[in-house]
Amino acid sequence: MSPRTTFADRVRSSRPSRGTRIMTAMTMAVAVAGGSLAGASTAQGAENPYERGPAPTESSIEASRGSFATSQTSVSSFSVRGFGGGTIYYPTSTSQGTFGAVAIAPGFTASQSSMSWYGPRLASQGFVISTIDTNSRYDQPASRGDQLLAALDYLVEDSSVRSRIDSSRLGVMGHSMGGGGSLEAASDRPNLQAAIPLTAWNTDKTWSEVRVPTMIIGAENDSVASVNSHSIPFYNSLSASLDKAYLELDNASHFAPNSSNTTIAKYSISWLKRFIDNDTRYEQFLCPAPDDRTISEYRDTCPHSG
């Protein structure tokens, strides 16, 4: 596959001092404490203009919905080029500026409905999410990768929510062959900010050229794309210098990503926030390796540099 030059490719790309006053010890302590909080808030906002939503907690990333109210809109296959249409889920708020966007592809023979639970769950955390249908249910990973990129291009160029999206902050996800497609997309477009292949399947096992921060999620009991033949070789082939992680779902099957899953959600949210939003508040859930009974194995390249 040859890389394509698109709109998204082209777009890519002092803390305030506190004076001291002469006052009583108690008044000085209050003033300094208040100034410290204000200074920290100002500095954090200046350092990361992409931060969206309140400070995360374990319960907030495990919740079925985040802090943003969401809406959705259908996209007909007849109104787009390069992919089979789908559904866009997006935060209704406009007060915090634009959001990062993620396209999500289904697996072999499946439709967008198999990935629909990701839409409101991820959008309510502060992302625009597009779950797509593929041109054919039998499309292979390379084609699904191209279609994920076409869906991202549609989001930022032509969709009804394009004004809500920061076109420099985009990512891809996918299940099975759609997961293999997310690796293809990351290979073809290195300026993506994040990729999350879910129990991915691909005949290509080597991805050393990928420059996109990638979290690979496998399933311990996957008999379709076994972790030993797919997810683990994919992870091992990624550059050691890349921000990457491998999460293996304990006692789970190939189809675990097709149903609402708190483990997938919480670590996907953390990965997307960390790398699409550059929000280091979520680093705590990724580094050090999580101690989570729903995970049978976790590998990483902590601390993250991105």
Automatic annotation (TrEMBL):
Q: Which Pfam families match?
A: PETase
Key words of the record: Hydrolase
- What GO terms are given for molecular function? carboxylic ester hydrolase activity
Q: Tell me which domain of life the UniProt entry assigns to the organism this sequence originates from.
A: Bacteria
What residue stretches are annotated with the PET hydrolase/cutinase-like domain?
46-303
**Where along the chain is composition biased (Polar residues)?**
57-66
Q: Where are the transmembrane segments?
A: none
Disordered: region residues: 41-66
Cross-referenced InterPro entries:
AB_hydrolase_fold, FrsA_esterase, PET_hydrolase/cutinase-like
- Family of the protein in this entry: Belongs to the AB hydrolase superfamily.
PANTHER family according to UniProt:
DIENELACTONE HYDROLASE DOMAIN-CONTAINING PROTEIN-RELATED, POLYKETIDE TRANSFERASE AF380
Name used for this protein in its record: Platelet-activating factor acetylhydrolase, isoform II
